[in-house]
Write a structure and sequence with these properties.
The protein is an alpha/beta fold and 427 residues long. It is 41% helix and 13% strand. Strand 7 (160-161) and strand 8 form a beta hairpin. The structure holds pyridoxal-5'-phosphate.
């Protein structure tokens, strides 16, 4: 059995740390762990000022607010994203303007230029699945039009572009420590900037936000414990643990229903709690190992699936990188490995039959399914490449739990589906 979406970064030591924290409620809310985490992320990303929040979406909201972005302003951001990105723009009273992508799954600079208007104030540049976007061209475009650049590094902690860490290029950046991100404290986020005035404003917003409540923190601490337990005992009742955790709301959701209509959930607009900062610091020690594993797994997928790229039955983000001028990035980190095909639904069903759940990032232009395009201001047809790829996406896991055998099994299912008998097998 291969799991692709249950606490992909959680290992036994993370679950046992969460267990110790569960029994130390005096460490849940207040403490100085957030300061240590902020310093470590600043040193890793080489960005001078870092400010922590309870999620990446709140970090983005704080950046937008600190930058004075408000009603009447437009913020450009790519389609093929999560609703957690346009939502903070809406919470700030501004209007999200959706930009199409190219086949690297990051922003199309040409489409971005077309959608700039006198009301445009900022561009959110997403490094999708750990692939640095075309920063040279986007930064030049932003300079020409006097626009603020906010890097969305939710998928890209540890990735570099021209040898420099992502997050250090724009006017500001934000990172996520969400349950399925690069490192995970279930919920957590960080704003980063080299601009001291902007940093001061973001810091004072952080200070004005309350800490999350005890019940919410408990839900997050239970997540690694119950998911790890559920996975470890999956065939022996673990499935029930996971089902109960979700249906009894012992654990939280990644996206709440109100967010699908552009609303602000109750948990947002908070500081990072001490307990979750401790979990994130612990995960940060594993960053290099996690990212090296992701890169190796992506390379293996690429190698095993390559005959299908040659025969044009599949396309991959990785296969497109060398072809795209200016995209020869130093170090993408491959949070997921994405391929697309006209037969995505049938391939996914075939995988599911064999116990493999391929991810749903992003099978709609603004994910997850069920988002009200009307309420978040997305017009169907406005980003045709994103729509076309989303409808064909198969999103494969690269996390630390995916062994070489798992990756081979996944590729075998896919190649068998296409009846390709020449698939190379790695020994
Ligand atoms: C591309 C992208 N940006 C931002 C976010 C928001 O991060 P967080 O879940 O920490 O709020 C997410 C995830 O939800 C995401 O996928």
């Amino acid at each position: 059995m291969v799991f692709t979406n249950l606490a992909p970064n959680t290992e036994k030591d993370d679950a046992s740390l969460a267990c110790r924290l569960i029994f130390s409620p005096w460490r849940w809310q207040k403490g100085d762990a957030f300061i240590k985490l902020e310093k470590e992320i600043a040193s890793l990303t080489t960005v001078k000022h870092t400010v922590s929040f309870e999620s990446g979406r709140t970090a983005l909201y704080a950046i937008l607010t600190a930058a004075g972005i408000t009603k009447g302003d437009e913020v450009l951001l790519q389609a093929y994203t999560c609703v957690a990105v346009p939502d903070p723009v809406l919470w700030a009273g501004a209007t999200p303007v959706y930009v199409d992508i190219d086949e690297t799954l990051t922003m199309s600079v040409a489409d971005c230029e077309k959608k700039i208007t006198p009301k445009s104030k900022a561009i959110i540049v997403q490094h999708t699945f750990g692939i640095p976007a075309n920063l040279d061209s986007i930064l030049a475009l932003a300079t020409r039009h006097s626009l603020l650049i906010i890097e969305d590094c939710a998928h890209a902690l540890g990735a570099t572009y021209h040898g420099k860490p992502v997050g250090s290029f724009g006017d500001a950046a934000f990172f996520s420590f969400g349950r399925d991100k690069v490192i995970s404290s279930v919920f957590g986020g960080m704003a980063a900037t080299n601009n001291p005035q902007l940093a001061e404003k973001i810091r004072s917003l952080q200070q004005s936000y309350p800490l999350p409540g005890f019940f919410w923190i408990k839900q997050q601490l239970l997540h690694p414990i119950l998911m790890w337990l559920g996975k470890a005992t999956y065939g022996f009742g673990g499935k029930i643990i996971i089902w109960l955790a979700k249906s009894l709301h012992l654990t939280s959701r990644a996206v709440y229903p109100i967010e699908r209509v552009g609303g602000k959930p109750r948990f947002a607009g908070k500081r990072l709690s001490n307990a979750l900062a401790i979990l994130a610091i612990h995960q940060l020690k594993k960053l290099e190992r996690f990212n090296t594993h992701r890169q190796k797994t992506a390379a293996l997928y690429q190698e095993l699936l390559s005959p299908l790229f040659v025969s044009h039955q599949l396309t991959s983000q990785l296969a497109n990188l060398p072809a795209a001028a200016g995209r020869l990035t130093d170090k993408p980190i491959w949070l997921r490995y994405t391929i697309w095909t006209d037969h995505a639904d049938r391939v996914k069903t075939e995988c599911a039959k064999q116990g493999i759940l391929s991810g749903d990032w992003y099978d709609t232009p603004i994910a997850p399914r069920g988002v009200s395009y009307e309420r978040i201001g997305y017009k169907l047809g406005s980003c045709p490449v994103a729509e076309k790829i989303a409808a064909r996406t198969i999103n494969l896991p690269t996390d630390i739990h995916i062994s070489e055998n798992d990756a081979q099994k996944i590729c075998n299912i896919i190649t068998t589906f296409y009846g390709n008998s020449n698939t190379p097998t790695k020994r």
